[in-house]
Every structure is written in C-alpha cells, then in structure tokens.
Amino acid sequence: MKRILRLMLTAAGPYATQFRATLRVSLAATVLQAAAYACFVPLLAELTRDPVRTGRAWGWVALLAALVAAEGALRVREMAFTYDYWHLVTGSTRLRLGTALRAMPQQELNRRAAGDLTQVVGGNATTAATAISSLAALFVQLVTVPAVLGVVVLALDWRLGLVLAAGTLAALPLVRQVQRRSGSGFREVDEADGEAAARIVEYVQGLPVLKATGQAGADSPRLISVLHRQHHTQAATNRSAALPVAGAQLLVQLALVALVSLGAALALDARLAPATLLAVTVAAARFAEPLSLAAVMTKLFELSEAALARIDDVLSVPPLPVAAGGTPPTSFDIRFENVTFTYDGQSEPTLKDVHFTIPERSLTALVGPSGSGKTTITRLISRYADPQQGTVRIGGVDLASLAPDEVLRHIAVVFQDVYLFDDTIRANIALARPDATDTDIEAAARAAGIHDFIASLPERYDTRVGEIGSALSGGERQRISIARAFLKDAPVVLLDEPTAALDSTSETVVQEAIDRLVDGKTVIVIAHRLSTVVGTDQILVLEDGRITQHGTHSDLLTDSDGRYARMWTAQAAARHWQLPVTVARTEGREGTHA
User: Fold this and answer.
1) Exposed, middle or buried by CB within 10 Å (0-12, 13-18, 19+), for 578?
2) Rounded CA gap, 358 and 364, in Å?
3) Going residue by residue through the chain (594 aa), what tens digit of pLDDT does each one get?
C-alpha cells in the first residue's frame, strides 16, 4: 500500500493536501465504525443479564448511536472529496500529463505510440482519479475495521482471538499471491490495452491502404494479433487470481466457523458466557467481511496501481537539461562542432564527428542517401535531443543552455508531410502565433499564396479542414503550413523537402511561396531532387553520418567521382525515363480491343 499511496499522491498533484486530509478523515471514520461494533459487546452483555440493567443498556445504545452519527458526519466529509475533487483530479492529471508530454524530449516522445499515450491520458487518468477518490478510503476501511475488531475479540477471549488470528494469517499468503499475480497481470493488460489502442489509431489512419490491399475488416492482420493478445492477457490475469481469491475467502470463513464452534464448546462447558459468545460472533462476522472483500478488491487495487504506474512513468520522464548561463541568441548563424549523435536503442551513431557552419541569412541544402543523417541534423537544430559528443550552436549560443521551447521560438519548420488539425483554417494557421489578429492571419495566407483559395470557400477562414486536413489537397495543405511559418516569422527556417509529394502545378505555387518565406532568413533545406538546390549558397553532402563534400553546386560537379556528381547524373537520367516498350504495346492492344 505504501507504493500505491506514493503513486496516488503523485497523481493527486496539486490536490495531494486534500487527499491526505481525506485519508485522515476516512481513518477516523473507520475507527468510529469499529468502535460502534465493539459497543455491541457490553450492550449484549447487559441485555442478557438477569435482571437487565436498563440504564446501562440505554447508555451503551446512546454511545452506539453517537458513534454512528459521528462516523456518518465524517463519511460525508470523506465523500465530499469524491464529489468535489474527482473531476478536478482527473482534469489536473491530464493537464500535467500534457505538460509532461510537452517537456518530454522529442526522442522519448517519438518512442511512444500515439494510441498508447491516448490510453494513459484518457483511461489511466480516469482510473487514477477513481482510485484516489474512492479506493484509498475503501482500503483504509478494509484494514482498520478488522484491526480494531481483532483487538476487541482478543480482549474478550484470547482463545477465540487466536483462532481468528490464525485464520487471518493463513489467508495472508493467498492475498499476497493475488497481489503478485494481479500486479504483473494487470501491468500486462494495461500494456496490451495501450498497444491495441495504438494499433486501432494506426488502422483508422491507414484504412485506405488496408482497403486497397484487401486487409481491412475484423480479421485484419494489423488488428487481429493485438486484439488476441489483449483478450489473452485479460483472461489469463483473471484466471490466475481466481483460485487464490477463493482460497483466501474460504480460509476466513473457516476461521469464523472454527471460532463459533470453539465458543459454543466453551459456553456449553460453562467457561464462556453466552452473551460474550454472541458478542464475539457479531464482532468476528464483521471482522471477516472486509477480509473476504479485501481478497476480491486486491485485483481492483492492482489494476489501479498499474494505471497509476503508467501515469507516473510519463510524469517522471526528465526534460532535457538546461545548462546555466544561456541567453537567447541575437544572431542566427548555425554551427555544429564535432557532433556525434546516436539514437536510443541503436549501437551505431547516426552522425559521426560532424562539423560545419551555416552563415546567417544563407541558404544551405542537405543532400545524401536515405539514412545518411540529414533529418537528424535538423532535429538537433530544433533540440529534439542533445548530441552525445560535440556542441550545436545558434548565434554562438550552445543549445544545451536553452530550453527546447526557447530554441523553437526562433525556428519555423515546413515538413514534407503536413499535419493539420480537424479545425478551421484560421485555427490551423494561428497555431504559429495564438495571439495573431485576423489581419495577421490573412496577411500570412496572402504571402503563402493560399488566400484566394480560402476566399473562394463558402465559410472562408472558418472552413474546417477535416481530420489531418483530409478536405484539402496536398498543395493546399502545404501552403497553409507555409502560412503558419510566415505568421511565426522566425529567423531560422527548416524545410524538409516540402514540394516532394506535389504535382508540378502545386510545386510551382508552393515553391514561389517558399521563396518569399526564406527571404532574409537562415535556411536549411533537406533536398532529394537536386534540381531544387542548384542556387543555394552551399550544399552539404552526407554519407553514412559524415559530411563528405561541401560547396556550391558548380564546385561539387567538378569532382566527377564524388557522391554529388553521381547523384546529379543519376537524377538527370531518371528525368528521361519512359515506360518500357512492351508495356506501351500491351496498353495499345488493350485500347484497340476497347
């Protein structure tokens, strides 16, 4: 319970003080409840006397009523936390998870599946709030009531108390077994739920591809394996805990039977007063009830612990450290000084002792084969992660001395794959600067060459773009992305082959918008089509994580055996590629038959 309590306090966050107070109230209420049950002992003793001492009997009734009333008042305060704070804890937990995800190093964030994080922020946060508001108080009752009543039984008759204690001690190993099996099992269940959620998100997003390949539907290989694992882990966890739960309940009930049997024998032998036996039986029955319930509730506690642990796992990820002494850059040249970087889980570095300088207000292209390290360079400029060796600087400032948000404040990024939120065009552009006016947004759209298209829509800037911008074409989405960059007006611009997926008409329009965007900026562009970087100030050629060539387009073509010249020649030849003659003839025959 100490472990679960620590996790609950972590999840309670700003409401931890109220949560502790509620636990104290619950403990006090439970002690009063147990004391009220204890009052039955002297009350029954008085009622079985001959003659009955009415005054004393009514005194015990009055004390019993007072204890019950006091417990009821405390329970009202206890329930107030559930009603007043449950939704606040849920909301607070989700907001803190959102803050943690924002501060989480991008490398760590990319390691986690979107559906899995959805499970944590959604289902796990709700389970955690339920555990804090309800289960913690229930656990206090399950522990405190048997403890107090056990002392009462021992005080009344040590022999009966030992029988009750022996049964409890015999059941404890089975309860611990339920904890172990349920604990590991529910962690697997929660992981399986997260994996299933991630795969469902992937399935929905990739449905057009799955339909085209005939793999959509309930028996889709992309779904069936994770759903089978989810079902298997849930069933296995329930089965593994069923026998220990039943065994623990049986032992507690047998202890109660043994107590009554021994008490009856002692009463018949005149070594125990019948009234005492009746009182002990009432106390023992109330003693056994929470113990039996605890064996069942253990599974629920372990389920809550699994949810709390997953929340704690996200909240405990440390953000990238920020070295002391950093000040925001005032100039925007970029310098890599002997940078080596290895992604988590990989044995070989992606960048190896990379050193280069990008002058302020210049245009630099990164070219090279896939996997050579181009994207990694742009990620390090955005402080996606810190290099294991070397230093990345903007304007002479070590990025390790700036918070990631401060770094990104100076950088605008235009990706090849544009992500738009299912919201209005206005809201998607304003992401770059939430306080922007409608005039600012329209000016950015004009600069990106998308205003005329937006103006032709019935709802203009209030038009919703659909999920991931599905209501728009690729070129339209890209120009909205460029409008964001215009609105941000950052001094550094990173372009990740923004025209690669566009048709020739859209490419021309988007390229004109980009030309306006990069004017006067420090620009780094990842290029696969070398024809788009002929006029850049410098080209960095990467191979296997190293910069093997550096210069202008003309300079690099002078080395006919160099990687750049070979790539240029190969791409020039590809531009003249045609369908094979056999295919053309086949198409001609099909057209004739048609």
Assistant:
1) exposed
2) 7
3) 666 677 677 777 787 787 788 888 888 888 888 788 778 777 877 777 778 788 888 998 899 899 989 988 888 877 776 667 667 777 778 888 878 887 788 777 777 766 667 777 777 777 777 766 666 667 777 777 777 777 777 777 778 778 877 777 777 776 666 556 555 555 666 666 666 666 666 666 565 555 555 555 555 666 676 667 766 776 666 666 566 667 766 777 787 788 778 878 877 777 777 767 777 777 777 766 666 666 566 666 667 777 777 888 888 888 888 888 778 899 999 999 999 999 887 888 999 999 999 999 998 999 888 888 888 999 899 888 889 999 999 999 999 999 888 888 898 888 777 778 888 889 988 988 888 899 999 998 888 888 888 999 888 989 888 876 777 887 888 888 888 888 888 899 888 876 665 666 666 777 777 778 778 889 898 887 777 788 888 999 999 999 998 998 888 888 878 888 888 888 777 665 555 655 444 455 444 444
Q: What is the CA radius of gyration of the chain?
A: 35
The 3-class SS string of 56-84 reads HHHHHHHHHHHHHHHHHHHHHHHHHHHHH
Q: Are 329 and 395 in contact (CB under 8 A)?
A: yes
How many of the other CB atoms lie within 10 Å of CB of 325? 8
39/161 same-domain check: yes
Cα-to-chain-centroid distance, residue 475 = 33
Under 8 Å between Cβ of 12 and 19: yes
3-state secondary structure 380-413: HHCCCCCCCEEEEEECCEEHHHCCHHHHHCCEEE
Contact 510, 450 (CB under 8 A): no
68: closest CA among 42, 41, 39?
39
Q: Is residue 219 part of a domain?
A: yes
d(CA 105, CA 102): 8
Residue type, 462: D
Q: Give residue for tokens 């319930």.
A: 293
**The pair of three-digit structure tokens given for residue 113, joined into one six-digit string:** 């599946």
Structure tokens that stand for 194 in this block? 């997260």
- Say yes or no: 108 and 235 in one domain: yes
Beta strand pairing call for 363-367 and 538-543? parallel
Q: Looking at the structure, tell me whether residues 483 and 535 fall in a common domain.
A: no
Distance between CA atoms of residues 591 and 594, nearest Å = 5
**Residue 324 in domain:** no
- Which token pair is 354? 């990379």
State pTM to two decimals: 0.65
CATH number of the domain to which 544 belongs = 3.40.50.300
| CB of 189 closer than 8 Å to CB of 237 | yes
Sheet holding 538-543, edge to edge: 411-414, 492-496, 522-526, 363-367, 538-543, 546-551
**Amino acid identity for residue 265 in this structure:** A
* Residues 205 and 58 both lie in one domain: yes
Q: Is 99 helix (H, G, I), strand (E, B) or coil?
A: helix
* Residues 342, 426 share a domain: no
Sign for the CA dihedral angle at 287, 288, 289, 290 comes to positive
Contact 543, 509 (CB under 8 A): no
What domain range is 462 assigned to? 422-488
When divided into structural domains, the chain yields a total of: 3
